[in-house]
Amino acid sequence: MGAASSSHDPACPRPEPHWIHYGSINLEDELPAEALKVGASVGKKISPVRRFFALLATFDVCFCSFLWILCAMLQYKSVKLVYEKEILEYGISTSLFDMSVLSALRFVVLILAYIVFRLKHWLLVALMTTLSGAIVICKTFLYDWQGQLAVNSGVLAGVLLLVTSFVLPWGQAWFLDFRVVPSENRASQLLARIVNDAFPPVPSTLGRENVRSEDGGTTFYSPESGSESESLAGDDVRVRSEIQLPHDLRVRFEQPEIYPKVLAPEERSYKRKAEEALDTALKIFHESNWKTEKMDHNGAIQTCHHSKFGKVYKYAGTLPASPEIILDILFNKLEEQVLWNPSVKEARVIESIDSQTDIVYILSDGAKGVVSCRDFVNLRMWQKRGESYLLCAIGAEHAKQPPKKTIVRGEQGPLLYMLAPSDTEMHRSKFQWLLNVNLKGWLPQYIIDKAMAKSMFEYADALKAHLISLEMSPENI
Q1: Do the bridges between strand 408-409 and strand 374-385 make them parallel or antiparallel, or are there none, so unpaired?
Q2: Which one has a higher pLDDT value, 381 or 149?
Q3: Domain assignment of residue 220, yes or no
Q4: Cα gap 463→461, rounded to integer Å
Q5: In this record, what's one Pfam family (predicted)?
Q6: Domain ends where: 182, 198, 214?
Q7: Spatial contact of 389 and 323, defined as CB atoms under 8 Å apart
Q8: Is 172 among the domain residues?
Q9: pLDDT band at 446, cuts 50/70/90?
Q10: Mean pLDDT throughout 435-446?
């Protein structure tokens, strides 16, 4: 069963719309536009305000080195003598070469910390400022000013070098703490607004679709005839009804079971846990403190900190298939993930509770040397709300799949896929993915953050490539 047929020529694929075009924020407003221009970081590019910080660190090392060379040349008149007296015969009371070395040390530490690793904490710049200030003060007392003044016409350059070595680190600390971090946080919040506008949350109450009760029966919700919600949704429902879905997809996702399964007590317990996990995931999803971490043409990754689960990730993008097709791949065709998802080595269903709930086992392939293999036992459940499909998962225990001694058992926190039809194209979906996972083991947080963001982008790209391959398959042409 492949993707829905497309009316366009497969040999000439249509241009993919930028996911951000679904948003409604007005970027022509002066304040948001200026904040994004200064603090936004897209993909691997660093923000303009952070680039200016790098420029400031570069100016520091260049200017201090220039002042040292100027002071030394005014005193010794020869490059050879400068090399011998200032470097080879270095003395703390006779040479200012240590000020140039100190500026180079500041440059290396700040560039590595805030440009290469893109740290946001002020600790390192504060340490470098304190170290530089302490060394400059000691140098002021220990340097032989009287002796150098008698023979050195460049003593004023030496004074300026010490003043510069003391003042510039304080300027760097101030700029990072009061300009770089606030500007990037502001831009991150605005980008989060753009994503939230582009991907509005699904209704918090169930629509007319069927919902399982605890005993395995089916209950229904039907709005009053002629209600406002029904009339407002009428046009969208008619458009969606024109999509030609495979017959078995309609049976599985749009029609209730004729003879619903009666659940055992343990199965009802699993069902309740899955429903609680869905409610928890939706509450986290609707948090207001999301910040955009990474962003490119295909999607964006946001993060927020939850008091119970810690750091939670959210991906938002679009996929080239209808929500029903994507849900079928994610839920009903779990075992096939090993064919298109490079991060999964094994995936299978341990127990099927009903047509909407199951317990699965997943063995991940790690993160290419960053994180080793992990396995998970997850409880999954999907629901339909309005025109959107929700697929949630949470870590669980099952007697058929106990932990293995050779593999670290990860703990799946709230996971939620949200699939909604595109506003502009019939066979395209808005795709949102909430992820929280405890990988266990002794892993530093920055390694986990790097691995999680990268794996989410890779997963979305792999899923998109799989959907495109299904669309291009002969049975769908």
Answers
A1: parallel
A2: 381
A3: no
A4: 5
A5: MENTAL
A6: 198
A7: yes
A8: yes
A9: low
A10: 78
Burial class (CB in 10 A: 0-12, 13-18, 19+), 59: middle
Which residues lie below 8 Å from residue 9, measured CB to CB, with a gap of 6+?
Answer: none
Q: How many domains does the chain have?
A: 2
Q: Considering the chain, what percentage of its residues have pLDDT values greater than 90?
A: 46
Phi, psi (5° rounding) for residue 317?
-165, -165
The domain of 68 spans 45-198
| Burial tier of 227 (Cβ tally within 10 Å: 0-12, 13-18, 19+) | exposed
Residue with tokens 């002629």: 226
Same domain, 283 and 137: no
Beta carbons of 126 and 152 less than 8 angstroms apart: no
Hey, how many other C-beta atoms are within 10 angstroms of the C-beta on 61? 20
Tokens of residue 288, six digits: 């207001």
- What pLDDT band is residue 169 in, cutting at 50, 70 and 90? very high
Q: Of 108-112, 374-378, 444-448, which range is least confident?
A: 444-448
DSSP output for 198-254: HSPPPPSS--SS-EE-TTS-EE---PPTT-HHHHHHHHHHHHHHTS---HHHHHHHH
Q: What is the dihedral of CA 190, 195, 198, 201, to 10 degrees?
A: -110
Give yes or no: residues 192 and 275 share one domain. Answer: no
Q: Where is the domain boundary, 177, 198, 219?
A: 198
Helices 30-39 & 181-198 angle (0-180, nearest 10): 120
Q: What is the pTM of this model?
A: 0.64
